[in-house]
């Protein structure tokens, strides 16, 4: 990683300029801030008009993002990961504490945040509402950061492009923490740029808090920090020490979470494999929805990085976290596209800056018409994917249909066995049909699963048991509780709901 940072430093060295706000630069002449020839005198009406433009530039993307994120937000079924969010968020705190200490510490803050939304069962809309609001906040933050670094139009275009990217929209409609992580990454970067422009203890303290929140919502999002470190070194070398102190304080506060989560890595990431270069290309295809849209967005982003010497932090924000995921995952696989969602705001803002720079070379109405056409083009290219991610069966699992089948076919006194044990969390977000089943996996109010003997005793008076599991590969088919149950029960045909399997076992 050190070698990669040095190479990136050489590549981005030509971008080295102080990170002052774009509005500050407008008041500077060619000879610096005291230049009379470069000063701009505005009338009150002009200042008010510019203020309205600046305000619209940040609010329009946020409104568009909220509108798009709300569109058909309840149509796709909640799936396995969302079920875990909804079920854990409404568990008693004592049970939640046991679960977090066993497998899911990295999401503890998110589950606590979700508790009010999951109360009384929690509808699909309420469970997904925090992600939707974070999506709108991230679009606002992208536009605000773009306004500060490159002017209001660059921020406007970047925020709109972010709102149109299918990957960002997908996780705006999911009850997981990834949209929130993206919003916090935008906030942390904005606070860093503000601190570099006008240093104060309060600004660095706010930045430290944002880094703490970033790691608390997802530890892998701390891969943003090498990008911040190099951006500080290139822009304000004398402010490296305050930055280090801020980050050290945040990371010290995160040490308990790191200590617990490090022991849960295998349980959390057993399904992750090392990525190759094809996965990098696939990531950008997922961000934009298809190859054509990806080419347009990447071309604009590359042009934005090339034309603007004031955006090293944005280019580094895209490159270094992805490089970190790739390098680390060759030894300890940690990469999943959704874990890298927090780089998408930087990509969108670079594309917005590229669009603004390209339009600035045009004259007259073309300077405004061309960006409008480009944004519409991005929307048109991503439209089919936007529709596809909102279809009822667009998620890996269809837990809504699973719950409907159980509700229609279960009988009083039926039992349920979840293999593996934690599948109870994975499927029961639509809780009504599961409340009528006798849980053979866990005794009421007990975190540890029953032993095979305890399960056999609990099933003694049952004639039917529903088996809820993934495909019965040897890993799951040899579950001792399932083996014990099969001595007395015969399995009927299985029904599938995405990656989840439902089978009825009846007593021999």
UniProtKB/TrEMBL annotation:
Subcellular location as annotated: Cell membrane
One GO MF term attached to the UniProt entry: pentosyltransferase activity
GO terms of biological process kind: lipopolysaccharide biosynthetic process; response to iron(III) ion
Membrane-spanning residues: 149-165, 177-198, 204-228, 240-262, 282-306, 313-332, 338-355, 367-389
Keywords: Cell membrane, Glycosyltransferase, Membrane, Transferase, Transmembrane, Transmembrane helix
Domain of life: Bacteria
InterPro entries reported for this sequence: LipidA_mod_glycosyltrf_83
GO terms under cellular component: plasma membrane
Protein's membrane topology: Multi-pass membrane protein
Keyword Mitochondrion found: no
Stretches for region Disordered: 23-48
Cleavable signal peptide: none
PANTHER family in UniProt: MANNOSYLTRANSFERASE YKCB-RELATED (PTHR33908), UNDECAPRENYL PHOSPHATE-ALPHA-4-AMINO-4-DEOXY-L-ARABINOSE ARABINOSYL TRANSFERASE (PTHR33908:SF3)
UniProt protein name: Glycosyltransferase RgtA/B/C/D-like domain-containing protein
Organism placement in taxonomy: Bacteria, Bacillati, Actinomycetota, Actinomycetes, Streptosporangiales
């Amino acid at each position: 990683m050190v070698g990669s940072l040095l190479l990136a430093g050489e590549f981005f060295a030509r971008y080295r300029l102080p990170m002052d706000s774009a509005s500050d630069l407008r008041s500077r002449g060619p000879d610096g801030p005291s230049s009379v020839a470069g000063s701009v005198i505005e009338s009150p009406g002009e200042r008010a008009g510019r203020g309205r433009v600046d305000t619209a530039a940040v609010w329009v993307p946020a409104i568009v993002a909220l509108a798009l994120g709300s569109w058909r937000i309840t149509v796709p079924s909640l799936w396995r990961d969302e079920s875990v969010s909804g079920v854990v968020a409404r568990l008693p705190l004592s049970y939640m504490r046991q679960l977090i200490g066993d497998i899911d510490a990295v999401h503890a803050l998110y589950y606590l945040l979700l508790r009010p939304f999951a109360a009384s069962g929690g509808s699909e809309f309420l469970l997904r509402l925090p992600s939707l609001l974070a999506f709108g906040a991230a679009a606002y933050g992208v536009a605000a950061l773009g306004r500060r670094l490159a002017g209001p139009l660059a921020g406007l275009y970047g925020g709109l492009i972010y709102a149109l990217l299918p990957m960002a929209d997908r996780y705006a409609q999911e009850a997981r923490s990834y949209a929130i992580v993206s919003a916090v990454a935008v906030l942390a970067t904005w606070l860093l740029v503000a601190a570099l422009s006008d240093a104060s203890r309060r600004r660095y303290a706010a930045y430290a808090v944002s880094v703490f929140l970033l790691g608390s919502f997802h530890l892998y999002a701390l891969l943003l920090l090498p990008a911040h470190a190099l951006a500080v070194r290139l822009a304000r070398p004398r402010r490296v020490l305050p930055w280090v102190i801020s980050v050290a304080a945040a990371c010290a506060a995160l040490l308990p979470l790191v200590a617990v989560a490090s022991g849960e890595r295998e349980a959390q990431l057993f399904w992750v494999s090392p990525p190759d270069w094809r996965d990098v290309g696939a990531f950008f295809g997922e961000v934009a929805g298809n190859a054509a849209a990806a080419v347009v967005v990447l071309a604009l982003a590359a042009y934005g990085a090339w034309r603007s010497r004031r955006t090293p932090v944005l280019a580094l924000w895209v490159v270094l976290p992805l490089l970190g995921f790739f390098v680390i995952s060759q030894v300890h696989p940690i990469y999943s596209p959704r874990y890298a969602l927090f780089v998408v705001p930087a990509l969108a803002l670079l594309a917005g800056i590229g669009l603004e720079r390209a339009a600035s070379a045009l004259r007259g109405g073309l300077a405004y018409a061309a960006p409008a056409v480009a944004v519409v083009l991005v929307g048109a290219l991503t439209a089919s994917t936007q529709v596809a991610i909102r279809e009822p069966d667009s998620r890996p699992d269809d837990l809504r249909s699973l719950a409907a089948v159980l509700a229609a076919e279960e009988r009083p006194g039926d039992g349920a066995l979840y293999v593996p044990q934690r599948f109870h969390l994975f499927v029961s977000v639509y809780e009504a049909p599961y409340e009528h089943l006798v849980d053979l996996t866990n005794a009421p109010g007990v975190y540890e699963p029953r032993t095979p003997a305890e399960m056999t005793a609990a099933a003694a008076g049952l004639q039917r048991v529903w088996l809820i599991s993934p495909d019965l590969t040897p890993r799951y088919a040899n579950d001792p509780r399932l083996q014990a149950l099969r001595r007395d029960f015969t399995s009927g045909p299985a029904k599938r709901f995405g990656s989840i399997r439902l089978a009825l076992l009846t007593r021999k």
